[in-house]
Structure formats: C-alpha cells, structure tokens
From TrEMBL:
The gene is LOC109470773. The lineage of its organism: Eukaryota, Metazoa, Chordata, Cephalochordata, Leptocardii. It comes from the Eukaryota. Interacts with AURKA, AURKB, BIRC5 and INCENP. May be a component of the CPC at least composed of BIRC5/survivin, CDCA8/borealin, INCENP and AURKB/Aurora-B. Residues 1-28 form the signal peptide. The chain crosses the membrane at residues 105-126. It is a single-pass type I membrane protein. Pfam families: JTB. GO terms for cellular component: centrosome; membrane; midbody; mitochondrion; spindle. The keyword Transmembrane applies. This is Protein JTB. InterPro entries: JTB.
C-alpha cells in the first residue's frame, strides 16, 4: 500500500506539469490567433464600438467553408460569429464566444481539480493512518520491552 502512495507523487507531479504546459500552449496559440485576426479587422467592421447597434443574428458557430475560405475574417478568432447592424455603417459580423462551451469547459476544469483534491486528501489521510499505526506499534514495542 505504501508503494502505491509513493508512486502517486511522481504521477501527480507529471500531471500538474503536463496540465500547466497545456494551459500555456493554449493561451499562446489563442494569443497569436487573436493578433493575426485583429490585423484583418478594419475600423468599419468595429462599428459597434462607436455607434449604436442591434444584434441581427445570434452567436452561431462558423461553417467550415467560412473558416477555410476566410469569407468572414472574424470567424478565425473564436470560431463563432454574430451579425450586428450598426446605425450608420450597416451590417457587419463580429466574433463572439460560445458561453455554453466555455461554461462546460469551466466546470470540467473545476471537476478535474476537485478530483485531484479528493485524491490528494485520501492519499494524505491514508498515509497519516499508516504513520500513526507505525508510531503506535513502536510505542507498544517500547512498553513491552521495558516491562
């Protein structure tokens, strides 16, 4: 049983390192994607920042054709797009976020870390029981030897 507890430290260390590297690589990839797509957006396409606007089409995933042909340049930012109608500039597309997917990813992340917490708690609890048992056995042995 103590061998399995000794193995859990390297496994957890590898898991933490791997997940940290994954987070860094994903954020770096998103950052470069945002920079490249931000250069493709002109000021007329960002009319919702200066004018009053109305959302014409709700946030939807971009079609494969829109992504590959770059017919809607803002599709490459998040993979989701919504159509807005600005008062003077007319209708343009803007990038949006899929809140359901982000919420699902958040709760998955929270669930994984809660599982890591529970596994760590169980490992510490079992290790403490083993150490307490060893200390009790040592005290009993000392008492038996002194009598």
């Amino acid at each position: 049983m103590s061998a399995s507890l000794r193995l859990s430290k390297p496994v957890l260390l590898i898991f933490f390192t791997y997940s940290s590297l994954q987070c860094l690589s994903v954020s770096a990839a998103e950052n470069s994607k945002l920079k490249s797509s931000a250069q493709a957006v002109t000021s007329s396409e960002e009319c919702w920042l200066q004018e009053k606007y109305e959302v014409v089409e709700k946030c939807r995933p971009c079609k494969q054709f829109e992504l590959t042909s770059n017919s809607i340049p803002v599709c490459s930012v998040t993979g989701y797009v919504e159509k807005v109608s600005c008062k003077s500039s007319g209708e343009v597309y803007r990038s949006c976020h899929n809140m359901r997917a982000e919420e699902r990813a958040f709760w998955t992340f929270e669930g994984v870390w809660f599982g890591v917490f529970v596994a760590g708690y169980i490992a510490v609890f079992l290790r403490q029981r083993i150490l307490d048992g060893a200390a009790t056995a040592k005290v009993h042995k000392q008492i038996a030897n002194s009598v």
